[in-house]
Specification:
By secondary structure, the protein is an all-alpha fold. It has two helices and no strands.
Length: 82
């Protein structure tokens, strides 16, 4: 008895929240849209390369814990906003 209730609840949950069957879109085909053209006279955005990612563990100098701020940056931002 309990197993059939669990199976029925599971089937209902999957029917409600599960992926669709795709029947509604079976007969339609996607509309082909042309990509938007950018005028040639406008200059493009300036691309600035990001610096190479470096790990602090690979630095030759050890980090000094006494000189490092023990406060997380989001805490400081919340205090400044208030």
């Amino acid at each position: 008895m309990t197993v059939s209730i669990i199976h029925a609840l599971l089937r209902w949950t999957l029917a409600v929240f599960g992926p669709g069957t795709g029947r509604r879109r079976a007969g339609t085909c996607p509309a082909a849209t042309a990509p938007a053209r950018v005028p040639e006279s406008r200059p493009g955005p300036v691309i600035v390369p990001l610096p190479a990612a470096r790990s602090p563990y690979g630095l030759p100098v050890l980090l000094d814990g006494a000189r490092t701020a023990p406060v997380r940056p989001y805490v400081l931002a919340a205090e400044r906003a208030a």
